[in-house]
Specification:
The complex is a heterodimer of chains A (275) and B (152).
Chain A lengths: L1 H28 L3 E6 L9 E2 L1 E7 L8 E9 L18 H6 L1 E2 L12 E13 L8 E17 L2 E12 L4 E9 L5 E8 L9 E12 L6 E5 L2 E5 L4 E2 L9 E9 L4 E8 L9
Antiparallel strand pairs in A: 1-3, 2-14, 3-11, 4-10, 4-15, 5-9, 6-7, 6-11, 7-8, 8-9, 9-10, 12-13, 15-16
Chain B lengths: L1 H31 L2 E16 L2 E10 L3 E9 L4 E9 L2 E11 L5 E15 L5 E11 L5 E10 L1
Antiparallel strand pairs in B: 1-2, 1-8, 2-3, 3-4, 4-5, 5-6, 6-7, 7-8
Classes of the chains: A mainly beta (275), B alpha+beta (152).
Chain lengths: 275, 152
């Protein structure tokens, strides 16, 4: 009887432990950085479409904050041939240094400058800037990617993050699109400047997901004295699926100078069957 | 022996005449080739878009008036491709290499171009030049000014 009870207890412990061990195994098996790229259902070749991009960073394995994200995109994607970025939004160098800016939403920028929308998750760490010492608070934010004026001959970008909870602050980050060798069409670069020392806090990006040419983007125009809204043309897909589909490559540079590379391939949309 | 010598002499004379004739023909061809300064204005409209490639057509006015068809590969940092001008007496095909210079709905661009082909009186033409213009990124209608030198 005692043996049976002990065996049952052992089995119960084993049954409880097995999923936990599995979860730990899965966590270890998952890459510390994951990049995703996809097209929405209904996207078709030769037409315009939003492009969904996602990046997830495991802060337990890569605790140092990311300072620069460089995302190379394929030359076959018509980002420049889209209608996105009909206006530009200029922010001062002082605002980029301060990171936290006044205003909410687009903080005074024209809606015609919005090129993409999405969400971001970050860890806000207060106190000593070590991974064990600080108080860590997860923060959620909505993100807008906007066109900015040309910067040193390069297409400028502005990333605005509106904290949704628990901190309702607006953060401004500088970006730009730089040239990249074939087969890339360019490299979308986001510079994540540290928040000024006076706050004794650091923000470590843990996830970002945004849609270039998101369907909810609307531009304003004046015609015949009337203001109307239209949906700008999104990213133009080629008429044929390119060999190797649509590859993406992200390079993350961390605050300690280390880098991490990750790649993914966005699949071509499934051709529609003709009836 | 003397017969062989006569044949050799005749052959030599014919070779000499052939060389002189070829030289004269080449000289005449060179004399006909002319170099002109070209100043063009082109108005293009979109015919098709595929990914980062835009196809346009339109008209050119200036030194070589005619019609234009073009194919440009447009990235955020570069514009490459070619266009063909069909004008009186032949066609000219040019390759272009440029870059956008501003964002916004009406974007500016500029770059260089060179002759890569020609037909009719422009067969074997060579030349190069520069261009600049604006494109409406809603309609993809473009206005381009180009200038350069052309030898044909």
């Amino acid at each position: 009887m005692r043996i049976a009870t002990a065996a049952a207890a052992a089995l119960a412990v084993a049954a409880l432990a097995a999923p936990a061990a599995g979860a730990a195994g899965r966590a270890a098996a998952e890459p510390p950085v994951e990049l995703t790229a996809s097209l929405p259902a209904g996207a078709r070749l030769g037409a315009e479409s939003p492009v969904r991009l996602g990046l997830r960073i495991d802060p337990r394995r890569l605790p140092t904050p990311v300072r620069e994200l460089r995302l190379r995109f394929p030359a076959s994607l018509g980002i420049a041939t889209s209608g996105l970025g009909a206006a530009t939004c200029r922010r001062t160098a002082a605002e980029f240094e301060a990171v936290m800016i006044r205003g909410y939403g687009l903080a005074g920028c024209s809606p015609n400058a919005v090129m993409g929308r999405g969400t971001a998750r970050a860890e806000v760490r207060f106190g000593p800037s070590s991974t064990e010492g600080p108080i860590t608070i997860p923060e959620l934010a909505s993100v807008s990617m906007l066109a900015a004026p040309f910067d040193d001959g390069r297409f400028g970008l502005l990333f605005l993050a509106n904290g949704t909870r628990p901190f309702g602050v607006t953060l401004a980050y500088k970006g730009r699109i730089e040239p990249a060798p074939a087969p890339w069409g360019g490299a979308l670069t986001l510079l994540i400047a540290p928040v000024p020392n006076e706050f004794d806090a650091e923000i470590a990006l843990t996830a970002i997901a945004f849609e270039i040419g998101a369907p909810q983007i609307r531009y304003r125009e004046r015609r015949n004295g009337r203001t109307s809204w239209y949906r700008p043309e999104g990213v133009v897909l080629p008429s044929r699926c390119p060999r190797g589909a649509f590859p993406f490559h992200a390079q993350l540079t961390f605050a300690d100078g280390t880098t991490h590379d990750v790649r993914t391939t966005m699949r071509c949309p499934t051709p529609r069957t003709r009836r | 022996m003397s017969g062989q010598s006569t044949v050799r002499q005749r052959t030599l004379w014919w070779s000499f005449f052939a060389v002189v004739l070829a030289a004269l023909t080449l000289a005449a061809g060179t004399a006909q080739a002319r170099t002109v300064n070209v100043n063009e204005r082109a108005s293009l409209h979109l015919t098709r878009k595929s990914g980062s490639t835009i196809y346009q057509a339109g008209t050119a006015t200036g030194t070589l008036p005619g019609t234009i068809t073009s194919r440009f590969h447009v990235t955020v940092t570069r514009v490459t491709g070619s266009f063909k001008v069909t004008t009186r007496g032949g066609t000219l095909t040019m390759s272009v290499n440029g870059s956008p210079r501003s964002g916004g709905t009406v974007a500016r661009f500029a770059g260089t171009m060179r002759v890569v082909g020609g037909t009719g009186k422009f067969a074997g033409a060579r030349g190069s030049g520069t261009f600049s213009g604006t494109v409406n990124r809603r309609t993809w209608a473009a206005n381009v000014s180009a200038s350069g030198r052309l030898t044909y």
